[in-house]
Input
Amino acid sequence: MEITILGIESSCDDTSAAVIRNTTLLSNVIASQAVHVKYGGVIPELASRAHQQNIIPVVDTALKEAGVTVDKIDAIAFTRGPGLLGSLLVGTSFAKGLAIANNIPMVEVNHLQGHILSHFVDLPDRTLPHPSFPFLCLLVSGGHTQIVKVSSPFDMEIIGSTIDDAAGEAFDKCAKVMGLPYPGGPVIDRLAKEGDSSAFTFSKPHVKGEYDYSFSGLKTSFLYTLRDAVAQDPDFVEKHKADLCASLQKTIIDILLNKLIKATKDLGIKDVAIAGGVSANSGLREAVAEAGRRRGWRTFIPELKFTTDNAAMIAISGYYRYQAGMISDLSIAPVARLEEIL
Ligand code: KG4
Ligand code: ZN
Output
């Protein structure tokens, strides 16, 4: 049976809509919001307004590119949370309006589960490798860092998570300190390629939880290194930018890999995936692939277009939920925090 799902994502600063038929992606349109760059971070109120401007043309384009009219949509999947409440409200309200007007069921999607399920999307010209259940996913985004045991599209157990900052935040905040533009992750990734990753040493965390992370100590250590060095030489950052980026990136990757490897050993799971915005990082992608080669894992490194926020991942999550009859009530409201969803 053919199931066609429209996915809508609006949790942070990307407005996205995608159409999927079974697991095959027919379109995936993303409007990124340039309005935040000059502030060095996402301004929630500006994000909501930009979503309002973008949502109709983005959904319209996604439907047209897929060659699908609204009456052929079986369900509308939308991001319920976690994310910025105002941003989520735009996507949820739009999904509701479209659902009511066309008598189409709605399916709520947890944004983080969406990142993980992006590994099940296929492209029209080729199927992509899908992990087998249960697999472990290192979920690294701007707001979350978790190790998740995935037993089915709905059964996900967070076995470890950050106790303070997320890995993406560590990238973004350290980039800001160096005067680099937002978001800092991709810029650090690029600069790190020209630097020496052993040039600087930053402190690594000792977290009690077996699979838990912490990145705020690294951020502080980075900040102090810079402050002391700049006091001696005002041009320090400019002169050592590439080495600073390479060393910082290497430290973040080491921290991430250390606990991930421990989890795979303890749980005896050899299908290992990465997901979320930080999984676009070239150093992390290589490190996970290398760890997999050494340890006999099957590694699942997402296509770059599925790493940062996109609606394809919401549509595929919606596909599985719709098939399982997990339809949302029209009274559903978005939620900002993950704890309110689970
Ligand atoms: O998943 P995502 O798009 O949004 C959230 O759900 O948070 O993740 C955004 C995060 C930002 O912190 C951004 O700096 C980071 O992903 N990011 C990267 C790279 N591309 C995006 N971090 C490191 N290297 C990259 N290439
Ligand atoms: Zn995300």
About this structure: The beta strands are 4-9, 14-21, 24-32, 75-81, 106-110, 135-140, 145-150, 156-161, 271-275, 298-300. The chain has two domains: 4-127+306-340, 135-302.
